[in-house]
């Protein structure tokens, strides 16, 4: 289930925010801003400090007449002469170095192209490759001077390579695995070289690994270059925009002004643990995927003798007359049903489960995830642990989304149509479909969905879904409800249950489950009061589930986000039977 080659969804790209777009480097800057891009290097600062120290010593000797020592007093004039000669020479060298840097640090002399997959799964390491080119002959008036200057520097052996510090403005969804800026050496080509004589272009490949840690679509900004002078006395900062021709050919032309984009998608491949795989394979072997049993579908199965309770439309009058006994038609049960996932995106889905270390994650469901994300078992102890310490919090919605995608994948394998609807601040609706494009479409449509700060309206969501669904379906409602929303939730489930089969999955925080059913025993009074409050809270949820189940016939599930994939899969397969 590789997701890196997924085709980008251009419709979602158009509606993305442009907050992450950096200003183009071609914007006109004031002279103060341009002057701020020039900085002296630490080498020049050290030289000036040494010169100042020698000048201070010479001044002290002159004022104290050599501290009463005749030999030291005689050194005053040579020291002053040396200081002024060094200052004059340093000034000349600095002017020449600045002129060389000015010729080598023109924005027009640099081009940038990036190479990377547009769609990547979250927590899968990838490499961003930037191709930085230096064009000596760019067609401008200063091109000849730049070319002659490069040839002179190469003959003198001063600067055969140009020292650059590269810093890329990567999307917020990525976390670099190596520190920036990256220092590189760009070889300088001249017209006297045997290679690339006509174009005078030298290209440098810069690759840096990143780890996607946040779902969503982000944009690359400009690349910041710090160009060092040939003698390393000065440096100049530049902002280089990527070549528009290097953008993905699948991207929307309307979004080309936003820069190059990268979409981080959810990844459910690691959730298919050994336990889930065994359940799924067992269901397929038992014939769940292609059950053929007598029912009230539309496809004819066989003829059988009439039995009490058969509908009149089932009687085959011609066969009955021919065989001189009542015969009825048996139909194949409609096994390809609609499964609609009703996903809450409200404020209750913003909960954070915090883990001190990677071993605290549910081992049954996430052992394969760690192995998948790290690639090797030896790397799991170092690389994953390091990234886990920085990203040890995951909101409910990301975990639920992985479970939703896994259930959609399994239902699609069972020849069921799968749809998706979100509510609570983010409204997305995908009508029930099936086929090879189902998971790709769901990944693209859910890439930028985030839990909001709005309160979820269960009744409104149920009314909207009822209007959209014409066929009886299995509706899986996934939320994290509170006591104040119990009546509204009950009304919503009652409305849905009039026409559909409802599965209600109510999430519970992992920390509460550990407090209630963990091995720790309350010792202090505050701990005891907290424990009894949590017991009342859990009993209230159980009463709500019992009320919903009795009044609507819905299947109520209470689970944590970590165990949601297994719980939903078992519930779905039980309904298929």
Could you characterize the architecture of this molecule?
With 577 residues, the chain is α+β, with helices and mostly antiparallel strands. It is 39% helix and 23% strand. It contains 17 helices and 23 strands. It has helices at 10-14, 31-36, 42-63, 70-73, 76-104, 143-156, 274-285, 317-323, 363-374, 377-390, 396-413, 438-446, 458-468, 486-497, 510-517, 525-552, 564-576, and strands at 38-40, 110-115, 119-121, 126-135, 161-168, 174-176, 182-187, 201-212, 216-219, 223-228, 234-240, 261-265, 294-295, 299-305, 327-332, 338-344, 352-354, 393-395, 417-423, 428-433, 473-479, 501-507, 555-559. A 6-stranded mixed β-sheet has the order 20-19-16-21-22-23, with helices on both faces. It has a 5-stranded antiparallel β-sheet with strand order 1-11-10-5-7. β10 and β11 (234-240) form a beta hairpin. α9 packs across α10 (377-390). 30% of the residues are buried. Residues 1-27, 191-199, 245-258, 286-295 and 355-393 have low confidence and may be disordered.
Query: Helical segment tally?
Result: 17
Dominant shape: elongated
- The secondary-structure class comes to alpha+beta
Give the strand content: 15-25%
How far apart are the first and last residues' alpha carbons, in Å? 27 Å
Query: How does the major sheet shape up?
Result: 6 strands, mixed
Q: Give the helix proportion (percent range).
A: 25-40%
Residue windows where pLDDT falls under 50 for at least 5 positions: 1-27, 191-199, 245-258, 286-295, 355-393
Radius of gyration: 35 Å
Mean pLDDT: 75
Q: Number of DSSP strands?
A: 23
- Widest sheet, order of strands: 20-19-16-21-22-23
